[in-house]
């Protein structure tokens, strides 16, 4: 079968619809949120500038509830969060160098790094502390039990967060049993 650019975009669109459907089914989608209507981040004005955490820009589908859950996970850890709702996640992923096998339902930008998917805050703290030469972190799919994808019965799928190198390759960054 010969795949051209249109076929590839159609498959990507179908995959995005499936991810969004699964995401919406995983947790009820609240009313669409914008940066102005998102829950406020904890006040950081009293903290010295050196202690402030960087802004997390979350690019997500407006109807995705699990993405909002992940943003709340980041806010609870003290990160300021700005939500950018878009119906064209493919353009965001392409701009930030996220390859097809790495897709999740949302893509974030944090202090010069890209974070794809439901990456736990501890991994983001480690990334920011170590500052490796890399594009960022990726967690493909939507593993049950990851931040924003919590299960009511506490079930957790094991998952591996990958370090996305500047050349597009991925190496394991952290394991989550």
Overview of this structure, please?
With 177 residues, the chain is an alpha/beta fold. The chain is 29% helix and 19% strand. The protein has helices at residues 5-26, 65-76, 89-95, 121-130, and strands at residues 56-60, 81-85, 107-110, 113-116, 136-138, 159-164, 170-176. It has a 7-stranded mixed beta sheet, with helices on both faces. The longest helix is centred in the first third of the chain and has 22 residues, at 5-26. The model is unreliable at 1-22 and 24-50 (pLDDT under 50).
Q: What descriptive keywords fit this protein?
A:
7-stranded mixed sheet, single chain, 177 residues
**Sequence of secondary-structure elements:** HEHEHEEHEEE
Give the overall shape: globular
Uncertain residue segments: 1-22, 24-50
Rg result: 16 Å
Oligomeric state: single chain
Strand content: 15-25%
Number of contiguous helices: 4
Helix content: 25-40%
The largest sheet is: 7 strands, mixed
Round the mean pLDDT to the nearest integer and report it. 81
Class by alpha and beta content: alpha/beta
Q: What's the β-strand tally?
A: 7
Q: Enumerate the strands of the largest sheet in spatial order, edge to edge or round the barrel.
A: 2-1-3-4-5-6-7
